[in-house]
Design goal:
mainly beta, eight-stranded mixed beta sheet, four-stranded antiparallel beta sheet, 402 residues
Length: 402
């Protein structure tokens, strides 16, 4: 890229695939997806950007929403306010469990889908939904799309202020779920939250979940359209909602402002809730698809721990950054500010995370026998950044001469 006489980089930076610095940039949500040929695809959502997609092993990321992947009238990457007043941002992305090429994305308050991993189609029967990407911790916790485990046209969609909608026809039409109440601010909560949604893949698509702050976790046992009812004993606030793909157990992590142990598990077999110990510092959880006993938790302000007992006991680690794709991040002690953490669906012991500077992966350190409660492990957990082609530059302030 050319420089001016003062040595400054110059050029057209409106294409967010080309920036003058190397970084990931406010990655809010990373979703690793198993493709039909057993390759892994990564979907990246960011509260100030237009989405990313990358097949693991390919040289770089590509942008999801581009002028050549959607009708020109719908494409405006530099829009100041979305249709719901949220500012720019890809709020969530998901892929169908039955077809990894089929994706659903929320961008600028609207819902889009693709069946070829490229061409983005607006879902006309889903009205604009306020997502509030740009505001405190809820901007980085983005589980607002759930797709049926076998029927890819059936979705449950959460929002910030516009309730929860269901569709079974790829968004040609949708229904506002009246049995899911609007959320309300919980005492001490500093930020507007969202309705997080999930589906139990072990139920054949019969059991669906939606969290409504101030009310708790709601469940339907009769399909995506409900009715939904509050599960007694469930946490009334939430920053992460996950369902174990092999047992159907539900994990809810309470919001960052809460005190005490944040992780709760609903044991599907026993039909009861358990508040899990030594989870006070973490607000995200990942469940190993190959081993339901193994969990990993991470926190917004750093910190990482692993369980081999479904959360009854934990090992904590020292984390650092190893070699990767971005020079100034690699081989450093730069802090990790986790927003999402998920296991790889194909490679055992591999895990992905997103944080304030992009996408990263690690191989989980060897297992250690656990004592009854907590064990501080001084083994280093090494992350490798994986953000080439996913760079962006954000301006948080500016000045000009009078």
């Amino acid at each position: 890229m050319p420089r001016n006489s003062q040595g400054q980089l110059v050029g057209d930076f409106s294409d967010q695939r080309i920036t003058p610095v190397g970084a990931g940039g406010f990655t809010s949500n990373i979703v690793p997806v198993r493709l039909p040929d057993n390759r892994v695809k990564l979907l990246d959502s960011r509260d100030v950007s237009i989405g990313g997609r990358r097949i693991v092993g390919e040289p770089s990321w590509e942008t999801v929403f581009r002028a050549d992947t959607m009708p020109a009238a719908q494409y405006d990457p530099l829009i100041v306010d979305s249709v719901k007043g949220d500012g720019i941002g890809t709020y969530c992305a998901a892929a169908a469990p039955s077809d990894g090429n089929f994706e659903v994305h929320q961008w600028n308050g609207r819902t889009y889908w693709t069946d070829n991993g490229r061409d983005m189609n607006l879902a006309p029967g889903i009205p604009p939904m306020r997502m509030k990407a740009n505001g405190d911790w809820p901007r980085r916790t983005q589980s607002t799309i759930a797709i049926h485990p076998t029927t890819k046209f059936t979705w449950l969609l959460g929002s910030s202020q516009d309730g929860v909608r269901a569709t079974d026809n790829r968004g040609e039409g949708s229904t506002l779920i009246a049995s899911i109440p609007p959320h309300s601010l919980v005492a001490g909560q500093s930020a507007e939250t969202k309705h997080y949604v999930e589906v139990d893949p072990t139920s054949g698509g019969d059991i669906w979940y939606a969290h409504s702050a101030g009310h708790g976790l709601l469940r339907s046992t009769s399909g995506v359209f409900g009715p939904y009812s509050v599960m007694p004993g469930s946490p009334i606030d939430c920053s992460c909602l996950r369902v174990c793909p092999t047992t159907g157990d539900v994990y809810v992590v309470r919001r960052p402002e809460t005190t005490g142990n944040k992780l709760w598990r609903f044991d599907k077999a026993a039909q009861n809730w358990l508040n899990l110990p030594n989870t006070e510092y973490y607000d995200q959880v990942a469940i190993d698809p190959f081993n339901p006993d193994r969990l990993v938790m991470a926190g917004e302000n750093g910190g990482l721990q692993k369980s081999l007992t479904r959360g009854q006991s934990w090992m904590r680690y020292v984390e650092r950054r190893g070699s990767g794709e971005i020079g100034w991040i690699s081989n450093s002690n730069k802090a990790c500010f986790y927003s999402t953490i998920r296991f790889d669906p194909v490679v055992q012991d591999k895990i992905w995370m997103s944080d304030g500077v992009g996408v990263n992966w690690a191989m989980i350190p060897p297992e250690t026998v656990l004592p009854p409660q907590i064990h501080i492990v001084y083994t280093t957990w090494i992350w490798h950044d994986y953000s080439r082609g996913n760079e962006m530059m954000c301006c948080f302030g500016g000045r000009h001469n009078p």
